[in-house]
Design goal:
The protein is mainly alpha-helical. The chain folds into two domains: 57 residues, no CATH class; 54 residues. The chain has five helices and three strands, in the order H-H-E-E-E-H-H-H. A three-stranded antiparallel beta sheet has the order 1-2-3, with no helix packed on it.
Length: 129
């Protein structure tokens, strides 16, 4: 099992969180640092140089393998902004009383209960060992 260590610079309260993850670029930058803490490394050939596409893909300059930061995660195939996902994860993990689908729908101004419910199911699935 992989051990997850929270970085020291992770926000300690909601105001810090909102400031740190206020843009999609900030969220993707955070994911990049988590996936490749020592810089990009192609998982196919081990090369360290890449192109960055308009679709937020990292393409290895040597073998042209495409890498996505959200592939294989609960964020994959989501049509909603990654900022909303980060905020949902924040509330899910930091609220002492928890968060339910109605709360999440209101907090994120989601259009449907079903979306909020499915997001919470995905988040709960991540916490099950």
């Amino acid at each position: 099992m992989t051990e997850f260590i929270t970085p020291e610079d992770f926000p300690k309260n909601e105001a810090e969180f909102d400031k740190r993850f206020s843009t999609e670029d900030a969220c993707f930058e955070y994911l990049f640092k988590l996936r490749w803490p020592n810089g990009f490394i192609c998982k196919k050939c081990g090369h360290g140089k890449y192109w960055y596409s308009s679709r937020r893909l990292y393409i290895c300059k040597k073998c042209r393998q495409q890498h996505s930061l959200i592939a294989g995660t609960i964020l994959q195939n989501s049509k909603k902004a990654i900022i909303n996902w980060f905020k949902a994860m924040w509330w899910f993990t930091t609220r002492k009383s928890g968060v339910n689908a109605v709360n999440l729908m209101d907090l994120l101004e989601l259009g449907s209960y079903e979306t909020a419910w499915s997001w919470l199911q995905k988040l709960r699935g991540c916490t099950v060992r």
